[in-house]
C-alpha cells in the first residue's frame, strides 16, 4: 500500500468525523471557528482580547491545540470560558477525532461560539476539516508579507484572514497591499481584518463581524 493511499484513508476518516461534528454544531446552534497560523503569530493573544470583547455578548468556548503544555489553555481559562486543551504530543495539526474527544469534555450548554486554536503550522492543518464553519488564518506583520505565496493552500481554504501586530508595521518590512493582493490572487473571497492586540486597533471590526455571524444564524 502506498503512502499516498494511507494518507487518503486518514483524510477520508477525518472528513467523516468532521461531518458528524458539523451536524452536532448545527443541532446545538454553535458557530465554530478554526484558528490557523504559524507559531508566534499571536493567535492566543488575539483570542484572549476577542473573548474579553465578546464577554457579555456572546457565550464562547475554546479548544486549545498545542504540541506540548497547557500554557495557552491556562491563559484562556482566566477569561472564565470553558476550555479544553488538546496536547498532540508532537502531532503537527488537529484532526476531527481529537476535536470530537475534546468536545465530549466541554460543557457546551448555551455556548454560541466555539474557537478552536489549531497547532501553530501553516501546512497540514489546511487539509484537516474539523467540522468548523469558518477557517481563520492569522498572520503577523513580523512574519513577512510572502506567506500567501509560500503557503497557498492555507489561503485557498481560509474564509477569513486576520493580520495581527499592525502596531509594528513601521518597524518591519511588510507591505499590506502586496500581502492582500497575493492572498486575493489565491482566494478572491478572502475577508480581511487588520488588528493590534497592543493598541486594540481593528478589534471593533473583527468582533462586529463575529457578532454579525450570530445575528445571521438566528435569522
Ligand atoms: Mg497559542
Ligand atoms: Zn500535521
Report the helical percentage.
Answer: 40-55%
User: How can the largest sheet be summarized?
Assistant: 7 strands, parallel
User: What series of H and E elements makes up the topology?
Assistant: HEHEHEHEEHHEHEH
Strand order of the largest sheet: 3-2-4-1-5-6-7
Q: CATH homologous superfamily, by name? A: P-loop containing nucleotide triphosphate hydrolases
Number of strands: 7
* Low-pLDDT residue spans: none
CATH architecture assignment name: 3-Layer(aba) Sandwich
Query: Ends: how far apart?
Result: 49 Å
Tally of DSSP helical segments: 8
The coarse silhouette is: globular
Present as ligands are: magnesium ion, zinc ion
The whole-number mean of residue pLDDT values reads: 96
Based on helices, strands and strand pairing, what is the structural class? alpha/beta
Question: What is the strand content?
Answer: 15-25%
Question: Could you say how many structural domains there are in total?
Answer: 1
Radius of gyration: 17 Å
- Kindly report the CATH topology: Rossmann fold
The CATH C-level class name: Alpha Beta
Give a description of the structure:
By secondary structure, the protein is α/β, with parallel strands linked by helices. It has one domain (2-218): P-loop containing nucleotide triphosphate hydrolases (Rossmann fold). Helix content is 42%, strand content 18%. The protein is built from 8 helices and 7 strands; from the N terminus they run αβαβαβαββααβαβα. A 7-stranded parallel β-sheet has the order 3-2-4-1-5-6-7, with helices on both faces. Helix 7 links the parallel strand 6 and strand 7. The N and C termini lie far apart (49 Å). The mean pLDDT is 96. The protein binds magnesium ion and zinc ion (ZN). Magnesium ion binds at residues 43-44, 72, 117.
Amino acid at each position: 500500500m502506498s503512502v499516498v493511499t494511507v494518507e487518503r484513508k486518514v483524510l477520508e476518516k477525518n472528513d467523516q468525523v468532521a461531518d458528524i461534528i458539523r451536524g452536532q454544531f448545527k443541532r446545538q446552534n454553535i458557530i465554530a471557528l478554526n484558528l490557523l497560523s504559524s507559531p508566534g503569530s499571536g493567535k492566543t493573544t488575539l483570542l484572549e482580547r476577542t473573548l474579553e470583547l465578546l464577554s457579555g455578548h456572546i457565550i464562547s468556548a475554546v479548544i486549545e491545540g498545542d504540541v506540548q503544555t497547557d500554557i495557552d489553555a491556562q491563559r484562556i481559562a482566566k477569561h472564565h470560558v470553558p476550555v479544553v486543551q488538546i496536547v498532540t504530543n508532537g502531532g503537527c495539526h488537529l484532526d476531527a477525532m481529537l476535536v470530537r474527544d475534546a468536545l465530549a469534555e466541554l460543557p457546551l450548554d448555551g455556548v454560541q461560539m466555539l474557537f478552536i486554536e489549531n497547532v501553530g503550522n501553516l501546512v497540514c492543518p489546511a487539509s484537516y476539516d474539523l467540522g468548523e464553519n469558518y477557517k481563520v488564518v492569522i498572520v503577523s506583520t513580523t512574519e513577512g508579507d510572502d506567506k500567501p505565496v509560500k503557503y497557498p493552500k492555507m489561503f485557498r481554504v481560509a474564509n477569513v484572514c486576520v493580520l495581527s501586530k499592525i502596531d509594528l508595521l513601521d518597524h518591519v518590512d511588510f507591505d499590506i497591499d502586496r500581502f492582500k493582493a497575493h492572498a486575493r490572487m489565491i482566494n478572491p473571497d478572502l475577508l480581511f481584518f487588520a488588528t493590534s492586540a497592543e493598541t486594540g486597533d481593528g478589534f471593533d471590526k473583527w468582533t462586529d463581524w463575529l457578532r454579525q455571524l450570530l445575528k445571521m444564524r438566528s435569522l
